[in-house]
Design brief:
alpha/beta; 47% helix; Bug_dom1; 5-stranded mixed β-sheet; 6-stranded mixed β-sheet; D-Maltodextrin-Binding Protein, domain 2; signal; BUG
């Protein structure tokens, strides 16, 4: 018995000793990180406030980490191309992804052949920002506030159309939720991008949109901003009520973006990136640059970001199922 106990103890000690060089190597790599430029993959086309935010974040990371952080645009397929690329990259902290709700919590339900598994292939680092949608109508629709929109839509079932960046996008699924809660029958018109549906909204070809980038259009007077989908009003346009305030109690929808790395990236590198990102997005000067877009910055830990993702998965799974979108390409 004593010999057996001694053998087990010896094996345990040997295992610990064998792991020490690996731990030391990982710690050394993290301490030296980064030793070369970092690639931040952006899943959409350049241009717009999110692209500006990402470039500003990359600039801030370059300054804090001492190595260039290069934004690499890889648009297409609702961010699945970019996410698949990052998922297959070496887990060394030199290839990062900025993704949104679809990347981490929705695509797995709307795409049959997803080139990555967000829960298995990606390691959350930090939530960067979130933003509500502006509920906007065009000048041809005879409504001037949110309650009038609800009344008009209810008296014209199946007549009002809404534009989105595409089937299964966050705006699309958010309007599906909104219509269900408000008891509306709306017609979906999918587009390939925001600029197209905003042009059609201003031209009177569609009636309604949910857009996170609505401030500039509302400010120009070319569209009517009737409500915001967050639980609180947007500071840049405090006169616009929330959807919940204006008549659809409990409704809340927003789009958010966060940074992830390939699964297996050393925790010390993940933590180092998390601290750098939180420092940047917590800077008042940085936040002020994006106030008008309605962005809310929420510094937090990798675990908190992972919890945010996990909390949204059942919500979007149910919406996708009700919208009959499960199992797309």
């Amino acid at each position: 018995m004593l010999a057996r106990t001694y053998l087990i103890a010896s094996l345990a000690v040997s295992a610990v000793i064998a792991m020490l060089p690996l731990k030391a190597s990982a710690e050394a790599a993290a301490a030296a990180y980064p030793a070369k430029p970092i690639r931040l993959v952006f899943p959409w086309t350049s241009g717009g406030s999110l692209s500006d935010l990402t470039r500003s974040l990359a600039d801030g990371l370059s300054q804090r980490l001492g190595q260039p952080v290069v934004v690499d645009y890889k648009p297409g397929a609702s961010s699945t191309i970019a996410a698949g690329l990052v998922a297959r990259a070496a887990p060394d902290g030199y290839t990062l992804l900025i993704g949104g709700n679809p990347t981490y919590a929705i695509n797995q339900f709307t795409h049959r052949h997803l080139p990555y598994d967000p829960a298995v292939d990606l390691a959350p680092i930090a939530l960067v920002a979130s933003a509500p949608f502006f509920v906007m109508t065009g000048p041809s629709l005879p409504v001037s506030n949110f309650n009038e929109l609800l009344a008009y839509a209810r008296s014209h079932p199946g007549k009002l159309s809404y534009g989105t960046p595409g089937i299964g996008s966050v705006p699309h699924l958010s309007v599906v939720r909104f219509a269900e809660q408000a008891g509306l029958d709306l017609v979906h018109v999918p587009y390939n991008g925001q600029s197209q549906f905003m042009t059609d909204l201003m031209g009177g070809h569609i009636d309604l949109v949910f857009s996170a980038a609505g401030f500039q259009y509302i400010q120009s007077g070319k569209v009517n901003g009737l409500a915001v989908t967050s639980t609180q009003r947007v500071a840049s346009v405090p006169s616009i009520p929330t959807v919940a305030e204006a008549g659809v109690k409990g409704f809340d929808a927003e789009v958010w973006w966060g940074i992830a790395a390939p699964r297996g990236t050393p925790p010390a590198i993940v933590d180092k990136l998390n601290v750098a990102i939180n420092t940047i997005i917590g800077d008042p000067a940085f936040k002020k640059r994006f106030d008008e877009a309605g962005y809310r910055f929420e510094p937090g830990t990798p675990a908190q970001f992972a919890t945010r993702i996990q909390g949204e998965i059942p919500v979007w799974r149910n919406v996708v199922a009700r919208a009959n979108l499960t199992g797309g390409e």
